[in-house]
Write a structure and sequence with these properties.
five-stranded mixed β-sheet, Immunoglobulin-like, five-stranded antiparallel β-sheet, 9 helices, alpha+beta
């Protein structure tokens, strides 16, 4: 059996301290009885909030209204033990029943005229009239939220599907939401209509459940439960549109959601709204190369906070974080505090691939033909050792280009931890050399080494191949030929 989790309201505290008077309510009430009924129901709101100051203010307002209704020739009396009024004047007698003593949330004022005709007016707590009366008498948004939640906590458990039932209505929920969230009349009307549509879905599923239980069709009963939950989801989606939540995730519903549908439960009730807290959406996204946690759309209560952690993937680094479109730097964590509006946060990443070529070192394979300053004779061979360090790259290649008697390019191989010439097939010892043609003229020649590697991270970011390259050079001096016994400079 699911448990209803009460979540306290978060609301902006608005102090509107004003003693109720007839003139204050004349524009919004059609009669003094209407005003007194609204005050009595508002008393119940203050009572549930534990707000004795507002309770006293509302009672004093009704004292003034009762005296005004009685007039100079009539009488007005209050029964403090029963919490009821009796007011008589030349037109007849008005008696009250209801919430002034905290016994019910509905106040009724019945009038019997001197000719014997009767009429009555009523007001229910958590409607526009009672909430307005409560606020005008010193109540606050925080108090209203507390009152509504405290009323929810007083309901009793019953039924086999869904735990808690209470009497409520779309009007109740919408009136509270309207005050706490500042909804317009049009928004409040649309919210009420949408909530009632969700209730109609639930009622249909509930009837299906009852019929299935009565016929013993357990499969159909389970399907009905699913439909009941779907109706709940529809109601919650409506609430999300207005930036508030009707309940916790562990409850079948909050707010205007009727009955448990079981044969043993009270199917005339509905879950009480337990959380009308304004929420704001923070949309979090991360580009290619990393993640942000939590991702996607996050709903956060007004005044709350939310922490986001940004983590680059292997091969990437964090390049920038933008909050509401503005850069906050390459921060690995960002906290939204005291949230009062919607936000966006996005993370951008860049490749952390690196490629670094060292200094090429020429040699002669131990033959002693290479002299200081990389001087040698034509016809001899040279070796090379080129260190290369790389991270997060693929397909590393190193090529050497030179022009002794004609342009040539050769691909190096990684051997023994450095890049070297490939084994020359003309070498009887299998040396990793290139040979300088004997007809090469004396002079200084340049051997260029090009190091190249694919950057897969940058490739993923741009959608096309990105390569890292570096070039290193070394000079070779040719003085004479291998067929000469000295290095005279002749060729």
């Amino acid at each position: 059996m699911k448990k209803l989790k009460l979540i306290s309201f978060l609301g902006t505290t608005i102090l509107m301290i004003a003693v109720l008077s007839f003139s204050a309510f004349a524009a919004s009430s059609s009669s003094i009885q209407d005003q007194m009924a609204a005050n009595s129901s508002a008393w119940w709101v203050a009572y549930n909030a534990g707000d004795t100051a507002t309770m006293n203010s509302l009672h004093q307002a009704n004292n003034s209204l009762a005296s005004q209704l009685a007039g100079s020739s009539g009488s007005a009396s209050y029964d403090s033990s029963a919490g009821t009024w009796t007011i008589s004047n030349s037109s007849g007698t008005t008696t009250s029943s209801g919430s002034s003593n905290g016994k019910t949330n509905t106040a009724t004022y019945s009038t019997t005229s001197s000719s014997g005709n009767t009429s009555a007016v009523s007001s229910t707590s958590y409607t526009d009239s009672s909430i307005n009366a409560y606020m005008a008498s010193g109540g606050t948004n925080e108090g209203l939220a507390s009152s509504y939640n405290n009323a929810a906590s007083a309901v009793t458990e019953s039924g086999e599907y869904g735990d808690t039932n209470a009497t409520t209505s779309a009007e109740n929920e919408v009136a509270v939401a309207k005050q706490l969230l500042g909804l317009t009349d049009a928004q409040a009307s649309a919210l009420k209509a949408d909530l009632e549509a969700a209730k109609a879905e639930y009622d249909a599923a509930q009837r299906m459940y009852n019929e299935s239980i009565a016929s013993g069709d357990t499969a159909a009963a389970e399907a009905a439960k699913t439909a009941m939950s779907a109706a709940h989801d529809d109601a919650q989606a409506v609430r999300a549109t207005y930036n508030y939540s009707g309940d916790s995730s562990t409850a079948e519903d909050g707010g205007y959601y009727y009955g448990d549908g079981s044969s043993g439960g009270d199917s005339s009730g509905g879950y009480f709204t337990v959380d009308i807290t304004q929420t704001y959406t923070i949309s979090a996204s991360a580009g290619t190369g990393g993640s942000i946690s939590p991702p996607g759309s996050q709903s956060v209560a007004k005044g709350g906070s939310k922490v986001f952690a940004i983590t680059p993937d292997s091969g990437y680094r964090l390049a920038d974080v933008k909050v509401d479109g503005a850069s906050v730097g390459a921060v690995s964590s960002y906290t939204f505090s005291n949230i009062t509006s919607a936000h966006t946060i996005s993370a951008e990443f860049a490749s952390s691939a690196s490629l670094s070529a060292g200094t090429p070192t020429l040699g002669d394979g131990g033959s002693g033909t290479l002299k200081s300053g990389n001087a040698t004779r034509s016809g001899y061979g040279i070796t090379v050792s080129l260190p290369v360090t790389a991270e997060h790259v693929e397909d590393v290649t190193v090529t050497a280009s030179y022009n002794f008697t004609g342009t040539k390019t050769v691909s190096l191989q990684n051997a023994g931890g450095t890049w070297q010439f490939p084994v020359n097939s003309d070498s009887v010892t299998g040396a990793r050399k290139i040979y300088i043609p004997v007809e090469t003229s004396d002079g200084t020649y340049t051997v260029s080494f090009t190091v190249r590697a694919l950057d897969p991270q940058a490739t993923a970011l741009t959608g096309s191949n990105v390569y890292l390259t570096q070039t290193r050079t070394v000079a070779v001096t040719i003085e004479g030929s291998m067929y000469q016994d000295d290095a005279t400079g002749d060729s």
